[in-house]
Design brief:
Length: 377
Protein backbone atom coordinates (compact mmCIF):
# COMPACT_ATOMS: atom_id res chain seq x y z
CA UNK A 1 0.00 0.00 0.00
CA UNK A 2 1.27 3.45 -0.88
CA UNK A 3 1.61 6.31 1.58
CA UNK A 4 -1.36 8.01 -0.06
CA UNK A 5 -3.37 4.80 0.31
CA UNK A 6 -2.52 4.60 4.01
CA UNK A 7 -3.63 8.21 4.55
CA UNK A 8 -6.94 7.69 2.72
CA UNK A 9 -7.68 4.28 4.25
CA UNK A 10 -6.78 5.23 7.80
CA UNK A 11 -8.59 8.54 7.46
CA UNK A 12 -11.77 6.79 6.27
CA UNK A 13 -11.66 4.31 9.16
CA UNK A 14 -10.94 7.17 11.55
CA UNK A 15 -13.97 9.05 10.27
CA UNK A 16 -16.23 6.01 10.77
CA UNK A 17 -14.86 5.52 14.27
CA UNK A 18 -15.33 9.19 15.10
CA UNK A 19 -18.99 9.01 14.04
CA UNK A 20 -19.47 5.95 16.23
CA UNK A 21 -17.80 7.69 19.17
CA UNK A 22 -19.95 10.79 18.73
CA UNK A 23 -23.05 8.60 18.93
CA UNK A 24 -21.57 6.68 21.85
CA UNK A 25 -20.89 9.79 23.92
CA UNK A 26 -24.62 10.59 23.59
CA UNK A 27 -26.19 7.17 24.21
CA UNK A 28 -23.57 5.56 26.52
CA UNK A 29 -21.26 8.34 27.75
CA UNK A 30 -19.43 6.42 30.46
CA UNK A 31 -18.75 3.42 28.23
CA UNK A 32 -17.63 5.77 25.46
CA UNK A 33 -15.26 7.56 27.84
CA UNK A 34 -13.59 4.32 28.97
CA UNK A 35 -13.39 2.88 25.45
CA UNK A 36 -11.88 6.14 24.22
CA UNK A 37 -9.35 6.29 27.07
CA UNK A 38 -8.26 2.71 26.32
CA UNK A 39 -7.67 3.41 22.63
CA UNK A 40 -5.97 6.72 23.33
CA UNK A 41 -3.68 5.37 26.08
CA UNK A 42 -2.71 2.52 23.75
CA UNK A 43 -1.78 4.88 20.91
CA UNK A 44 0.07 7.22 23.27
CA UNK A 45 2.17 4.42 24.76
CA UNK A 46 3.39 3.41 21.29
CA UNK A 47 4.17 7.00 20.26
CA UNK A 48 6.13 7.55 23.47
CA UNK A 49 7.89 4.22 23.03
CA UNK A 50 9.01 5.34 19.57
CA UNK A 51 10.20 8.67 21.00
CA UNK A 52 12.28 6.88 23.62
CA UNK A 53 13.77 4.55 21.00
CA UNK A 54 14.65 7.57 18.85
CA UNK A 55 16.28 9.28 21.84
CA UNK A 56 18.26 6.19 22.82
CA UNK A 57 19.61 5.89 19.28
CA UNK A 58 20.77 9.51 19.31
CA UNK A 59 22.09 9.43 22.89
CA UNK A 60 24.32 6.37 22.44
CA UNK A 61 25.31 7.16 18.86
CA UNK A 62 23.95 3.85 17.58
CA UNK A 63 24.46 3.31 13.86
CA UNK A 64 22.00 0.50 13.10
CA UNK A 65 19.03 2.54 14.38
CA UNK A 66 19.61 5.04 11.53
CA UNK A 67 18.03 2.52 9.14
CA UNK A 68 14.80 2.72 11.17
CA UNK A 69 15.05 6.41 12.03
CA UNK A 70 12.47 7.70 9.54
CA UNK A 71 9.95 5.05 10.62
CA UNK A 72 10.56 5.93 14.25
CA UNK A 73 10.20 9.64 13.55
CA UNK A 74 6.91 9.01 11.74
CA UNK A 75 5.45 7.22 14.78
CA UNK A 76 6.81 9.92 17.10
CA UNK A 77 5.11 12.49 14.86
CA UNK A 78 1.75 11.28 16.16
CA UNK A 79 2.31 13.02 19.52
CA UNK A 80 0.84 16.42 18.49
CA UNK A 81 -2.40 14.84 17.23
CA UNK A 82 -2.61 12.70 20.39
CA UNK A 83 -2.35 15.92 22.40
CA UNK A 84 -5.39 17.25 20.53
CA UNK A 85 -7.20 13.93 20.99
CA UNK A 86 -6.68 14.29 24.75
CA UNK A 87 -9.53 16.85 24.80
CA UNK A 88 -12.38 14.30 25.06
CA UNK A 89 -10.65 12.71 28.06
CA UNK A 90 -10.40 16.07 29.80
CA UNK A 91 -14.09 16.73 29.06
CA UNK A 92 -15.06 13.27 30.35
CA UNK A 93 -13.07 13.70 33.58
CA UNK A 94 -16.04 13.20 35.97
CA UNK A 95 -17.13 10.03 34.15
CA UNK A 96 -13.70 8.43 34.40
CA UNK A 97 -12.14 9.37 37.72
CA UNK A 98 -13.91 8.91 41.07
CA UNK A 99 -11.72 11.52 42.75
CA UNK A 100 -13.53 14.19 40.69
CA UNK A 101 -16.92 13.28 42.22
CA UNK A 102 -18.31 15.45 45.04
CA UNK A 103 -17.44 14.07 48.46
CA UNK A 104 -21.13 13.57 49.24
CA UNK A 105 -21.46 11.09 46.36
CA UNK A 106 -18.77 8.81 47.78
CA UNK A 107 -18.59 6.41 50.68
CA UNK A 108 -17.51 8.48 53.74
CA UNK A 109 -14.39 6.36 54.30
CA UNK A 110 -13.38 6.67 50.65
CA UNK A 111 -14.08 10.40 50.68
CA UNK A 112 -11.87 10.83 53.76
CA UNK A 113 -8.98 9.00 52.13
CA UNK A 114 -9.35 10.93 48.88
CA UNK A 115 -9.36 14.20 50.79
CA UNK A 116 -5.74 13.55 51.76
CA UNK A 117 -4.87 13.20 48.05
CA UNK A 118 -6.81 16.30 46.97
CA UNK A 119 -3.74 18.60 46.82
CA UNK A 120 -2.44 16.36 44.01
CA UNK A 121 -5.61 14.79 42.61
CA UNK A 122 -7.67 17.80 41.62
CA UNK A 123 -8.87 18.77 38.17
CA UNK A 124 -6.91 22.03 37.84
CA UNK A 125 -3.54 20.51 38.81
CA UNK A 126 -4.29 17.37 36.78
CA UNK A 127 -4.88 19.43 33.64
CA UNK A 128 -1.82 21.59 34.35
CA UNK A 129 0.35 18.50 34.57
CA UNK A 130 -1.12 17.17 31.31
CA UNK A 131 -0.14 20.40 29.54
CA UNK A 132 3.41 20.12 30.93
CA UNK A 133 3.71 16.48 29.87
CA UNK A 134 2.65 17.17 26.30
CA UNK A 135 4.80 20.28 26.07
CA UNK A 136 7.89 18.25 27.05
CA UNK A 137 7.11 15.32 24.75
CA UNK A 138 6.17 17.35 21.70
CA UNK A 139 9.05 19.80 22.07
CA UNK A 140 11.62 17.01 22.31
CA UNK A 141 10.01 14.94 19.56
CA UNK A 142 9.65 17.79 17.09
CA UNK A 143 13.20 19.03 17.69
CA UNK A 144 14.64 15.56 17.18
CA UNK A 145 12.70 15.10 13.95
CA UNK A 146 13.80 18.55 12.73
CA UNK A 147 17.46 18.04 13.63
CA UNK A 148 17.42 14.45 12.38
CA UNK A 149 16.39 15.60 8.91
CA UNK A 150 19.18 18.19 8.92
CA UNK A 151 21.85 15.84 10.28
CA UNK A 152 22.38 18.00 13.38
CA UNK A 153 23.69 14.98 15.30
CA UNK A 154 25.42 16.90 18.07
CA UNK A 155 22.26 18.77 19.03
CA UNK A 156 20.10 15.66 18.78
CA UNK A 157 22.52 13.68 20.93
CA UNK A 158 22.74 16.38 23.61
CA UNK A 159 18.96 16.82 23.75
CA UNK A 160 18.38 13.06 23.90
CA UNK A 161 20.87 12.49 26.70
CA UNK A 162 19.50 15.38 28.75
CA UNK A 163 15.87 14.66 27.87
CA UNK A 164 15.64 10.96 28.68
CA UNK A 165 15.30 11.58 32.46
CA UNK A 166 12.59 14.17 31.76
CA UNK A 167 10.72 11.69 29.56
CA UNK A 168 11.04 9.00 32.24
CA UNK A 169 9.59 11.25 34.94
CA UNK A 170 6.78 12.76 32.86
CA UNK A 171 5.75 9.37 31.46
CA UNK A 172 5.67 7.88 34.98
CA UNK A 173 3.51 10.68 36.37
CA UNK A 174 1.27 10.58 33.28
CA UNK A 175 0.67 6.85 33.87
CA UNK A 176 -0.18 7.63 37.48
CA UNK A 177 -2.53 10.47 36.49
CA UNK A 178 -4.38 8.93 33.56
CA UNK A 179 -4.47 5.21 34.37
CA UNK A 180 -3.57 4.50 37.98
CA UNK A 181 -5.87 7.21 39.35
CA UNK A 182 -8.85 5.38 37.83
CA UNK A 183 -8.63 3.48 41.13
CA UNK A 184 -7.25 6.31 43.29
CA UNK A 185 -6.95 4.34 46.53
CA UNK A 186 -4.62 1.82 44.90
CA UNK A 187 -1.03 2.56 44.02
CA UNK A 188 2.09 0.89 42.66
CA UNK A 189 5.52 2.44 42.41
CA UNK A 190 6.35 0.42 39.28
CA UNK A 191 3.14 1.20 37.40
CA UNK A 192 4.88 3.82 35.24
CA UNK A 193 7.56 1.31 34.25
CA UNK A 194 4.87 -1.24 33.46
CA UNK A 195 3.10 1.19 31.12
CA UNK A 196 6.40 2.29 29.55
CA UNK A 197 7.73 -1.22 28.94
CA UNK A 198 4.53 -2.41 27.27
CA UNK A 199 4.45 0.63 25.01
CA UNK A 200 8.16 0.35 24.20
CA UNK A 201 7.83 -3.29 23.13
CA UNK A 202 4.80 -2.39 21.00
CA UNK A 203 6.68 0.55 19.42
CA UNK A 204 9.61 -1.69 18.45
CA UNK A 205 7.15 -4.25 17.11
CA UNK A 206 5.34 -1.60 15.04
CA UNK A 207 8.67 -0.37 13.63
CA UNK A 208 9.38 -3.96 12.55
CA UNK A 209 6.01 -4.10 10.78
CA UNK A 210 6.47 -0.73 9.06
CA UNK A 211 10.02 -1.64 7.99
CA UNK A 212 8.82 -4.90 6.48
CA UNK A 213 6.04 -3.18 4.53
CA UNK A 214 8.45 -0.46 3.40
CA UNK A 215 10.76 -3.10 1.90
CA UNK A 216 8.49 -2.98 -1.13
CA UNK A 217 10.43 0.17 -1.96
CA UNK A 218 13.62 -1.06 -3.68
CA UNK A 219 15.91 1.36 -1.81
CA UNK A 220 14.60 0.15 1.55
CA UNK A 221 14.93 -3.51 0.55
CA UNK A 222 18.52 -2.86 -0.55
CA UNK A 223 19.59 -1.24 2.72
CA UNK A 224 17.47 -2.72 5.54
CA UNK A 225 19.13 -6.08 5.83
CA UNK A 226 18.85 -9.12 8.15
CA UNK A 227 21.53 -7.71 10.44
CA UNK A 228 19.35 -4.66 11.13
CA UNK A 229 16.15 -6.58 11.78
CA UNK A 230 18.17 -8.96 13.94
CA UNK A 231 19.27 -6.07 16.14
CA UNK A 232 15.70 -4.76 16.35
CA UNK A 233 14.46 -8.25 17.22
CA UNK A 234 17.01 -8.61 20.01
CA UNK A 235 15.84 -5.34 21.52
CA UNK A 236 12.22 -6.48 21.24
CA UNK A 237 13.11 -9.69 23.03
CA UNK A 238 15.01 -7.90 25.81
CA UNK A 239 12.18 -5.48 26.58
CA UNK A 240 9.56 -8.20 26.30
CA UNK A 241 11.38 -9.89 29.18
CA UNK A 242 11.57 -6.54 31.00
CA UNK A 243 7.80 -6.04 30.60
CA UNK A 244 7.15 -9.51 31.99
CA UNK A 245 9.51 -8.79 34.89
CA UNK A 246 7.58 -5.60 35.71
CA UNK A 247 4.30 -7.52 35.66
CA UNK A 248 5.77 -10.25 37.86
CA UNK A 249 7.36 -7.78 40.29
CA UNK A 250 4.17 -5.79 40.82
CA UNK A 251 1.99 -8.89 41.16
CA UNK A 252 4.39 -10.84 43.35
CA UNK A 253 4.96 -7.99 45.80
CA UNK A 254 1.21 -7.41 46.06
CA UNK A 255 0.58 -11.11 46.63
CA UNK A 256 3.28 -11.40 49.31
CA UNK A 257 2.21 -8.24 51.16
CA UNK A 258 -1.51 -9.18 50.95
CA UNK A 259 -2.54 -5.68 52.02
CA UNK A 260 -6.27 -4.87 51.89
CA UNK A 261 -5.59 -1.58 50.06
CA UNK A 262 -3.50 -3.29 47.34
CA UNK A 263 -5.15 -6.66 46.69
CA UNK A 264 -8.53 -5.40 45.30
CA UNK A 265 -6.89 -4.16 42.09
CA UNK A 266 -5.78 -7.72 41.28
CA UNK A 267 -8.98 -9.29 42.57
CA UNK A 268 -10.95 -7.22 40.05
CA UNK A 269 -8.60 -8.27 37.23
CA UNK A 270 -8.45 -11.91 38.21
CA UNK A 271 -12.17 -12.58 38.57
CA UNK A 272 -14.11 -14.50 35.93
CA UNK A 273 -13.37 -13.60 32.33
CA UNK A 274 -10.82 -10.98 33.42
CA UNK A 275 -8.73 -13.84 34.82
CA UNK A 276 -8.99 -15.56 31.46
CA UNK A 277 -7.85 -12.33 29.82
CA UNK A 278 -4.80 -12.29 32.09
CA UNK A 279 -4.07 -15.89 31.06
CA UNK A 280 -4.21 -14.76 27.42
CA UNK A 281 -1.64 -12.07 28.27
CA UNK A 282 0.66 -14.55 30.01
CA UNK A 283 0.60 -16.88 27.02
CA UNK A 284 0.03 -14.50 24.12
CA UNK A 285 1.98 -11.45 25.26
CA UNK A 286 4.90 -13.26 26.86
CA UNK A 287 5.30 -17.03 26.54
CA UNK A 288 4.60 -17.39 22.82
CA UNK A 289 6.55 -14.28 21.67
CA UNK A 290 9.37 -15.23 24.05
CA UNK A 291 9.77 -18.61 22.37
CA UNK A 292 9.44 -17.13 18.89
CA UNK A 293 11.95 -14.33 19.45
CA UNK A 294 14.51 -16.77 20.82
CA UNK A 295 15.10 -17.81 17.21
CA UNK A 296 18.03 -15.96 15.66
CA UNK A 297 17.08 -16.90 12.06
CA UNK A 298 13.53 -15.58 12.60
CA UNK A 299 14.75 -12.21 13.85
CA UNK A 300 16.93 -11.87 10.78
CA UNK A 301 13.99 -12.39 8.40
CA UNK A 302 12.03 -9.11 8.12
CA UNK A 303 8.73 -10.71 7.10
CA UNK A 304 8.73 -13.18 10.00
CA UNK A 305 9.79 -10.53 12.51
CA UNK A 306 6.95 -8.33 11.19
CA UNK A 307 4.44 -11.12 11.87
CA UNK A 308 5.73 -11.45 15.43
CA UNK A 309 5.63 -7.64 15.69
CA UNK A 310 2.02 -7.44 14.51
CA UNK A 311 1.08 -10.04 17.11
CA UNK A 312 2.76 -8.04 19.88
CA UNK A 313 1.07 -4.82 18.74
CA UNK A 314 -2.31 -6.58 19.03
CA UNK A 315 -1.45 -8.12 22.40
CA UNK A 316 -0.48 -4.71 23.76
CA UNK A 317 -4.05 -3.54 23.15
CA UNK A 318 -5.31 -6.47 25.21
CA UNK A 319 -2.85 -5.44 27.93
CA UNK A 320 -4.07 -1.83 28.04
CA UNK A 321 -7.69 -3.00 27.90
CA UNK A 322 -7.05 -5.29 30.89
CA UNK A 323 -5.49 -2.41 32.83
CA UNK A 324 -8.42 -0.03 32.28
CA UNK A 325 -11.72 -1.79 31.65
CA UNK A 326 -12.15 -3.72 34.93
CA UNK A 327 -12.78 -0.31 36.52
CA UNK A 328 -15.99 -0.09 34.46
CA UNK A 329 -17.08 -3.73 34.17
CA UNK A 330 -16.90 -6.39 36.88
CA UNK A 331 -16.64 -9.00 34.14
CA UNK A 332 -15.46 -8.88 30.55
CA UNK A 333 -18.15 -7.22 28.41
CA UNK A 334 -17.01 -6.16 24.96
CA UNK A 335 -19.11 -3.23 23.73
CA UNK A 336 -19.46 -1.93 20.17
CA UNK A 337 -17.71 1.25 21.35
CA UNK A 338 -14.65 -0.91 22.04
CA UNK A 339 -14.45 -1.25 18.25
CA UNK A 340 -15.43 2.32 17.36
CA UNK A 341 -12.87 3.87 19.73
CA UNK A 342 -9.71 2.24 18.29
CA UNK A 343 -11.01 2.83 14.77
CA UNK A 344 -11.47 6.52 15.52
CA UNK A 345 -8.32 7.17 17.54
CA UNK A 346 -5.93 4.94 15.60
CA UNK A 347 -7.41 5.82 12.21
CA UNK A 348 -6.95 9.55 12.71
CA UNK A 349 -3.54 9.10 14.35
CA UNK A 350 -2.17 6.83 11.60
CA UNK A 351 -3.53 9.07 8.83
CA UNK A 352 -1.88 12.20 10.22
CA UNK A 353 1.38 10.40 11.10
CA UNK A 354 1.55 9.02 7.53
CA UNK A 355 0.78 12.48 6.12
CA UNK A 356 3.64 13.98 8.16
CA UNK A 357 6.10 11.23 7.18
CA UNK A 358 8.74 11.87 4.57
CA UNK A 359 11.34 9.67 2.84
CA UNK A 360 11.64 6.15 4.29
CA UNK A 361 15.43 6.30 4.64
CA UNK A 362 17.78 8.85 6.24
CA UNK A 363 20.07 8.54 3.21
CA UNK A 364 21.27 12.15 3.56
CA UNK A 365 22.85 11.28 6.92
CA UNK A 366 26.66 11.13 6.53
CA UNK A 367 26.65 8.04 8.75
CA UNK A 368 24.15 6.23 6.53
CA UNK A 369 26.73 4.16 4.61
CA UNK A 370 28.28 2.89 7.85
CA UNK A 371 24.79 2.18 9.24
CA UNK A 372 23.82 0.21 6.14
CA UNK A 373 26.99 -1.88 6.46
CA UNK A 374 26.17 -2.84 10.08
CA UNK A 375 26.72 -6.49 10.89
CA UNK A 376 25.40 -7.68 14.23
CA UNK A 377 26.04 -10.95 15.99
Amino acid sequence: MTRRGVIIGAGALGGLGAIGLAIGFVVAPRQAAFSYLTAWAYALSIALGALIFLMIGHAVGARWTILFQRFTEAITGALPVLAVLFAPIALALPRLYPWVAPSGALDPEVATKLAHKAPYLNAAFWLTRAVIFFAVWIAIGELLVYWGRRSAHGRARALSAAGLPAIALTLTFAAFDWLMSLTPLWYSTVFGLLYFSGGFVAALALIAVVASVARRVPAVAAHVRPSHTGALGRLMFAFLVFWAYMELSQGLITWIANRPDEVPWYVARGAGAWGDTFAVLVIGHFALPFLVLLSKPLKRRPALLAIAGAWLVAMHYVDVYWLIMPVLHATLAIHWLDVAAPLGVLGVTVAIAAWRARSPLASEDPRFAAAAAYEGS
